[in-house]
Amino acid sequence: MEKIRVMTVFGTRPEGIKMAPIVKAMEDVEEIENIVCVTAQHREMLDQVLDIFKIKPDYDLDIFKPGQSLTEITTKGLEGLEEIIIKTKPDLLLVQGDTTTVFAGALAAFYQKVKVGHVEAGLRSGNIYSPYPEEANRKLTGIVTNYHFAPTNESRENLLKEGYPEEKIFITGNTVIDALFHVVKENYVFKDELLNNIDFENKRVILLTSHRRENIGSPMENIFNAVDEITKKYDDVEVVFPVHLNPKVRNIANKVFDGNNNVHLIEPLDYEPFTNLMAKAHIVVTDSGGLQEEAPSLGKPVLVVRKETERPEGISAGTARLVGTIKENIFNELDLLLSSENEYNNMANAVNPYGDGKASQRIVQIILEQFK
Ligand code: UD1
Ligand code: UDP
């Protein structure tokens, strides 16, 4: 029997987390030959994910270089992938999400006339510069995609509006929920001493993350200043911020939070402690895409510190609020959640607009049906 040769391509932390359940699901399927290729657009942050999910890539382009430009990531990814695609001749190349690796992967496949499956297809903010360059990456990838795996009905609708054929769009849920279900545990004990020493019973912990390119500069300073000021108003509030490895983010964080003992700046956490920290946190403040999906599932109010979001489902469900990047607005929204039990409880609903934890199984089934 000829196997279906499926090559997964990913390069950053969130793509790894969301692609891992699909790679794992395909490992158990006899009809599929699993070829894993990482660009390693991220290095340490990707390796953390590969370790946790025990994935050993067949190919590692190792393109990471600190501070490299979008052009460098794209061209190195394209060149490296061309060679591997010609050598391995996959029937299908899977990419996930909206990073530059996704765009390069989809384009490299298209150039070799290899079919493309896009996981997490159809998310749209409507503004090509926000998130930047992700909104464009996702749209550009869509153009060369043969199978659109849309996580929600809204994302399917976006694709239909852009004229993509109905029979090539599949609602699957988001694989981030599949991954999350594997790692969040009751009574989780951290290995990290700082986290273990936090009194989650008596302190209200804000989990903060921020890394978006369009926020770097004064928007990010505003976000951090708002959080800094809120810790000065409330004695029982502590902040944990696993800081992205981007030095531009680190510089702003170090500057704004300097001397504030209630804000813990820590290294990026492995996925398991990170999600368990979110499960114990009181509020999430973030510009991350993935966190907007995970927080509703864990019933955590999430303040999205961005001007636009391509993930409106959490907002409709009431768990997420788009609060922009103006300091006073972020401070006021935090203040409201910390001072009004009613406001807090209205947002702290465990809802799952992004999936039921079976997205990866669905995607594998669709692949089997389409290639039989
Ligand atoms: C990338 C994605 C973004 C995604 C994010 C997830 C693009 C354009 N952006 O943004 O969509 O939300 O990943 O985190 O694809 N760095 C390290 N080690 C690492 C990773 C990053 O040192 O393991 C530092 C480097 O200095 C690097 C910088 O972070 O230059 C930025 O990395 P890059 O991949 O260019 O963009 P991200 O902001 O991480
Ligand atoms: N995450 C992690 N450790 C951290 C911060 C985030 O494992 O210290 C996980 C998080 O649970 C989510 C993903 O990384 O699944 C989000 O990545 P990021 O915010 O970097 O990218 P985005 O989702 O915005 O593309």
From TrEMBL:
Q: Which CDD domains match?
A: GTB_UDP-GlcNAc_2-Epimerase (cd03786)
Q: What is its EC number?
A: 5.1.3.14
GO MF annotations in UniProt:
UDP-N-acetylglucosamine 2-epimerase activity
Sorted UniProt keywords = Isomerase
Looking up InterPro entries in the UniProt record yields: UDP_GlcNAc_Epimerase_2_dom (IPR003331), WecB-like (IPR029767)
Protein name in UniProt? UDP-N-acetylglucosamine 2-epimerase (non-hydrolyzing)
Residues of the UDP-N-acetylglucosamine 2-epimerase domain: 25-367
- UniProt similarity note: Belongs to the UDP-N-acetylglucosamine 2-epimerase family.
The organism encoding this protein is Anaerosalibacter massiliensis
Cross-referenced Gene3D superfamilies, in alphabetical order?
Glycogen Phosphorylase B
